[in-house]
């Protein structure tokens, strides 16, 4: 049976984190400790060639970055934050994209490991159940996730559920009662699932009935006729749409215009991401803003602290770091007067705000 880093740690009498530092950043480890780890590696024949070279002190100063796409400016903004800090601190980056495809994710990780990266910054479809992350843990390759809302793994993100809750409450405060959420495939994104939970919580606490998310192709540049008909026909069509990301909101706005609907007079729109280009639209997009560049910077800082062995000295000892979100009102939300019904917000005024 092939030995793992856990076996090496048990044999040497040290933690997995200490053995990982000995493998990935030997210059940060006490010489006596490093010697014991090397002896255990030799005894167990734990000899992956890239790691063996690193044990001889040959650092690559190369960090791998794995993102779903650069077509979405969210990830480009994160990458900008990473690149600025990496360049300033003398590190190189190697970037790969995956389109949320499991085989491409596996290929990207294998390729970057072959290139002897000292750590990874990545975004995956579902952090809590991702088998490749379990493999990285067993192999001792250090990583930090971005935008993955998880408590089990090192990550930097916003609280997607709370952010969506706050955004939908803003729609409700404007008098909207028929609010529908649009998203890509929920099974492909832990973030979208958390956002739908926040939507549902806001609706329920206002005495409203949440609807299942309307799932659409997140790569589509146009709304399908069936989706457009669902949004625009019938007496009970929604008065407001909460889109799980800004790019989807832009696609929706274009589709509604082609259907001769006016925004926000006929339909209010709320996005999620806070992309700068949303402010250039007419009307400017209302959105929930995530600090994408800051998320990239924080992910870099936390990964570098792990790689250099200073992670334990960081002020935040939690695996996860949650950065604050904000709301940008834009001009795509119109107020609705519900004269014949009590305000949903007044009806639920005694209910505590969750996730604060």
From TrEMBL:
CDD domains: HTH_LacI. InterPro entries: HTH_LacI, Lambda_DNA-bd_dom_sf, Peripla_BP/Lac1_sug-bd_dom, Peripla_BP_I. It comes from the Bacteria. SUPFAM superfamilies: lambda repressor-like DNA-binding domains (SSF47413), Periplasmic binding protein-like I (SSF53822). Residues 3-57 form the HTH lacI-type domain. The keyword Transcription regulation applies. Keywords: DNA-binding, Transcription, Transcription regulation. GO terms for molecular function: DNA-binding transcription factor activity; transcription cis-regulatory region binding. PROSITE patterns: HTH_LACI_2 (PS50932). PANTHER family: HTH-TYPE TRANSCRIPTIONAL REGULATOR GALS, LACI-RELATED TRANSCRIPTIONAL REPRESSOR. This is Transcriptional regulator. It comes from Paraburkholderia dioscoreae.
């Amino acid at each position: 049976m092939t030995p793992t880093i856990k076996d090496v740690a048990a044999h040497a009498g040290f933690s997995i984190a200490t053995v990982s530092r000995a493998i990935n950043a030997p210059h940060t480890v006490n010489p006596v400790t490093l010697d014991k780890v090397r002896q255990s590696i030799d005894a167990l024949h734990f000899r992956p060639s890239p790691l063996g070279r690193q044990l001889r002190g040959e650092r690559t100063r190369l960090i791998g970055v794995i993102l779903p796409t650069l077509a979405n400016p969210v990830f480009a903004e994160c990458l900008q934050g990473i690149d600025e800090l990496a360049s300033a601190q003398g590190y190189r980056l190697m970037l790969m994209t995956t389109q949320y495809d499991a085989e491409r994710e596996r290929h990207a990780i294998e390729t970057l490991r072959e290139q002897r990266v000292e750590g990874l910054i990545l975004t995956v479809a579902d952090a809590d159940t991702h088998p490749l992350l379990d493999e990285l843990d067993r192999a001792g390759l250090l990583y930090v996730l971005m935008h993955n809302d998880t408590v089990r793994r090192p990550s930097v993100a916003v609280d997607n559920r709370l952010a969506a809750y706050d955004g939908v409450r803003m729609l409700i405060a404007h008098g909207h009662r028929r609010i529908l959420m649009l998203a890509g495939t929920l099974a492909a994104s832990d973030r979208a699932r958390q956002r739908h939970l926040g939507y549902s919580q806001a609706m329920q606490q206002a005495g409203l009935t949440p609807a299942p998310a309307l799932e659409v192709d997140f790569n589509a540049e146009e709304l399908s006729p069936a989706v457009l008909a669902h949004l625009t026909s019938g007496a009970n069509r929604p008065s407001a749409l909460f889109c799980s990301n800004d790019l989807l909101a832009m696609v929706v706005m274009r589709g509604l215009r082609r259907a001769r609907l006016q925004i926000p007079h006929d339909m209010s729109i709320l996005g999620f991401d806070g992309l700068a280009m949303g402010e250039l639209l007419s009307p400017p997009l209302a959105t929930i803003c995530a600090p994408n560049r800051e998320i990239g910077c924080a992910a870099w800082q936390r990964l570098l602290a792990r790689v250099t062995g200073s992670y334990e000295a960081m002020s935040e000892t939690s695996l996860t770091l949650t950065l604050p979100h904000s709301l940008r009102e834009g001009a795509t939300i119109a107020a609705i007067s519900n004269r014949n019904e009590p305000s949903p917000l007044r009806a639920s005024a005694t209910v505590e705000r969750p996730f604060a």
